[in-house]
Amino acid sequence: MRMTTASTCCYCGVGCGVLIEHDGERILDVAGDPSHPANLGKLCSKGSTLHLTGDLDARALYPELRLGKGLARGRTDWDSALEHAANVFAETIREHGPDSVAFYVSGQLLTEDYYAFNKLARALVGTNNLDSNSRLCMSSAVVGYKRSLGADAPPCAYEDIELADCLLIAGSNMAYAHPVLFRRLEEAKAKRPEMKIIVVDPRRTDTSALADLHLPILPGTDVALFHGLLHILMWEGWIDRRFIDAHTEGFDALKSLVRDYTPAMVADLCGISVDDLQTCARLIGSAPAFLSLWCMGLNQSTAGSAKNSALINLHLATGQIGKPGAGPFSLTGQPNAMGGRETGSLSNLLPGHRDATNAEHRAEVADYWGVEQLPKQPGLSAIELFEAVRAGKIKALWIACTNPAQSLPNQQNVHEALAACPFVVVQEAFFTTETCRHADLLLPAASWGEKEGTVTNSERRISHVRRAVPAPGEARADWAITCDFARRLERPAARPVARHEPHRHRGAAVRPCRRSVARHECRGHASPAFAGGPAGDGEKPSRQPDPPGAEG
After folding, report:
1. How far apart are CA 132 and CA 256, in angstroms?
2. Can you give the pTM of this predicted structure?
3. HSE of 124 in the Cβ direction (CA atoms, 13 Å)?
4. Are 128 and 181 contained in the same domain?
5. Which domain holds residue 14?
6. Count of other CB atoms within 10 angstroms of residue 79
7. 41 and 153 in one domain?
């Protein structure tokens, strides 16, 4: 008997709704969900072939354990596997302290999975050594939003694409990376030819082919470009002084900074013509509604946070934020990188857009979780974490739903680190990944279509991921594995901590901490410190970010 289950695509951050056709045992086909507001029934080539990705021969089906680095892993049962892991982690913590262990997780996890890992690391183990592969792609946007707007909360929605009068795309080949959104942009342009599209990209791409103006700047000159545009906007009087005075700080310092970024100098630095630079500024400055979209071309950079802030400053200076068709809109790469940011699953964050370095924020979360305090010691970011593993400082490492032995930079160092780490746990759906070769304990996890929870897309829309078929073999949902391990670790660790209970749908354990929740009020900082650096069923949450999945 063929059945249909509505769910959400597991690829990129667009968060498309999908209809899974299945017989209760196998996924047979996938189609776009016309009722889902993120994609309105459209799917890209990846999403439309999701049903072909379930390679059962590559699946991890049962726990595997080895008791020595030179030994092969052998099949074991869940009780033995998790008891062994709990004993090793507890002994490591007792001997070397809580910062001798670490957790490396993924933007492919569900929000409930993220939250469970966060609580495990910080409330039970007592370490901030929890980071995500989202560090490699979205951390620059996190910093840019937080220091420019006060919260990591993109203030835009997909509907703004149709409402924008001028749209700037920087560091993104949307046609390839976010094709469903790009089709939406194409349709908007066809309906409103007067809409102006600017593409900033050193390359000539399918995205730039749609542009009214393509700026093929030299690589690494994004900050200079944005400063140069702001210089012209100020000179021509295309800024919103009333908005600046009412909602921003530091404008005079920023004005002093960009004074030196003259059109001639910026055009020379960026490798473009002065006429194109001035045309770009005019299109932005004269537009009733100006929207910017960007992705990894800005984020994956040694000056990524500076690029983000410099672009956001254009919106703050022109008042192009907080209204239809306007705002700075970072396009998320992974399906739930935004959910991880909301649950605080980077080493410097806490749930609900809180900061791990903020004593008041730590106290709020500790009070909610029922523990005396959360760790003060800053956690290690992804690159630092694996450097610490290689240096022998991290003695036990838990990796979930990501493949750092393939995806992290400096691959030789990563492989050396994993080979030398005394105890590596890999929680993974597929045993064929490069990282699984280094696993002392392999825990089989459920994959897409086999588990239930929520994800948050680029526009902060929370969508339900539904289970259509059972997981093969003994594979379990990621949050269930984490909670089972935590309950076992709690006994030998002997720490007073809130109990880890299974999460109901939409994250029943994620209760809003309503005191001092960061509120998005379009208040922004526009200062040299933020703009500096080298010259060179989907439910839309409110724009006040409470923790995702919160009930009540």
Report:
1. 37
2. 0.88
3. 30
4. no
5. 3-53
6. 11
7. no
